[in-house]
Amino acid sequence: MSDNPERKQINFTIIPEEQPSEPRTYANFCSIAHTPFDFTLTFCEVMPLSEKEMREAAQDHVVRAPVRARIVVPVQFIPNLVAALQEHMRVFQDTYSNVGWTKGDPIH
Question: pLDDT tens digit string along 48-96?
């Protein structure tokens, strides 16, 4: 038996199987961290701050936001994710450029 058996490549499409009870989760902030092996995307929901929270943020320079989801993906996944996001952003801009949406600076 050979040490390097031939590998047969099979192409397929993955389709998410929606569950009727699966809730959508809203996030408007994403913190990104990485190790040599994976990337961690932490999605949070940042709500408008109260006057008290504004004063505290001005002193501490920190705003705490509840984590809505934390996703860990292998490094090999990231180039395809970036490419997919760029393509969807391009289509979004082409589609909605006539409704008042303008390209702004990224929010980190």
Answer: 999 998 998 899 898 989 999 999 999 999 999 999 999 999 999 888 8
Query: How far are the Cα atoms of 11, 21, 36, 57, 83 from residue 33, in angstroms, in the given order?
Result: 31, 30, 10, 23, 19
Query: Does pTM surpass 0.85?
Result: no
Q: Which helix (H) or strand (E) holds 54?
A: helix 51-60
Using alpha carbons only, give the angle 100, 105, 106 rounded to the nearest 5 degrees: 110
Using alpha carbons, list the distances in angstroms from residue 71 to 4, 25, 52, 67, 68.
Answer: 34, 13, 32, 11, 10
Where along the chain do its domains lie?
A: 29-99
DSSP label at 71? E
Read off the amino acid at residue 47. Answer: M
Residues 6+ apart with CB under 8 A from 41: 30, 31, 32, 70, 71, 72, 73
